[in-house]
Specification:
The chain is low in regular secondary structure. The protein is 11% helix and 8% strand.
Length: 105
């Protein structure tokens, strides 16, 4: 998690009564990919994320994280396949992470 500092804020140039040499530095410039694009995350030679075992398109934009596999299975029972006649996506990674992906109405 990135914790914003005074230099990260747009109003960093505002005078707050304290003066120091650091106040004269320009705000940090960060690539947008740091926050919004996971393509910068290291991947295996097969293109999968090492800790989850997932690749592009296998994880939904919104996720629910539970503490026990029985709860994950229960919630997965409410999901619909993304494609008609298809199956709910399921993957259990080498590190013990289980992923179900589907649609919820």
């Amino acid at each position: 998690m990135a914790i914003p500092t005074k230099r990260d804020r747009p109003d960093a140039d505002a005078d707050d009564g304290a003066s120091s040499e650091n106040d004269q530095r320009p705000p940090l410039k960060r690539s947008a990919s740091v926050y919004s694009n996971i393509n910068g995350v290291p991947r295996t030679t097969t293109g999968r994320l090492p800790h989850l075992g997932l690749t592009d398109g296998e994880l939904a934009n919104r996720v629910v994280i539970v503490g026990h596999i029985a709860r994950a299975e229960l919630l997965a029972s409410f999901l619909q396949p993304e494609e008609v006649g298809g199956k709910i996506f399921y993957l259990s990674s080498d590190r013990g992470y289980t992923t179900y992906t589907g649609l919820f109405n």
